[in-house]
Amino acid sequence: MFTGIFGAFLGIARQSTRRWVRFVAPLLGLALAILAHTFNNGLGLIVTILLRESGEELPELGPPPQTPFLEAWAVASVQNLLLFLPFVLIVLVALRASGKRERRVIEEQLASEVGGAVTLEEFAEIRRDGIFRTRRLKRIDRRRSAALVNAQHELAFRKQAVVVEGGDPEGDELVASWRREIAGLRA
User: Fold this and answer.
1) pLDDT per residue over 76-87, tens digit each?
2) Where does a domain end: 83, 117, 134?
3) Domain span at residue 108?
4) Is 170 within a domain?
């Protein structure tokens, strides 16, 4: 989870065109990951302090209880989910924002490719695309469909990267290469 938090914010920084977001997002992600890890490491101390403050006796040290594996796993999973719910929600919000941004970049950058790297029918599917749904092309076998969709997405992301760097996608060799790859997959 700690690495996931940091990675999500690195992704947000990488996708952003705003300089301040590119600078602040990794620092915020690192701070949240450190906070979550600190919380995880300090849980025993926090529980001990709360028990002492409430006047309750600390449990006796001894062998761990003989709990069946699946029961222990389920209880620990639910406890961790509840304890780390704020951090889980942060990751989910970051993933949702990232997914929306990716779909927007794909739609914006492939709009000019209709009639070439993207058919009109495919662009209509791109516009309807949703989170957690993988677009597949009809009348093409699954493997080639996945390769073609991936190549279209790579084309869109490369075009966006060139634009962010202040360049012209039409003169970029990698953009041209992705277009050739798409044409080859259609042949």
Assistant:
1) 899 888 988 998
2) 83
3) 99-186
4) yes
Question: What's the one-letter identity of residue 178?
Answer: W
Angstrom distance (rounded) from CA 1 to CA 91: 9
Q: Are 107 and 126 in contact (CB under 8 A)?
A: yes
Q: Residue 90 is encoded by which pair of tokens?
A: 């942060």
Among 31, 56, 83, identify where a domain stops.
83
pLDDT band at 64 (very low <50, low <70, confident <90, very high): confident
Same domain, yes or no, for 73 and 149? no
Using one digit for the tens of pLDDT, what is the confidence trace for 145-166? 999 999 999 999 999 999 988 8
Q: What six digits make up the tokens of 22?
A: 């590119």
Under 8 Å between Cβ of 122 and 116: no
Note the pLDDT of residue 185: 92
Q: Do 45 and 78 have their domain in common?
A: yes
Q: Are 159 and 186 in contact (CB under 8 A)?
A: no
**pLDDT at residue 15 in the model:** 78
- 156-164's contacts with Cβ under 8 Å and 24+ in sequence apart are 156/105, 156/106, 156/108, 156/109, 156/110, 157/105, 157/106, 157/109, 159/109, 160/105, 160/108, 160/109, 164/17
The total number of structural domains in the chain stands at 2
- Residue 89 is assigned to a structural domain of this protein: no
DSSP string, 150-161: HHHHHHHHHHHH
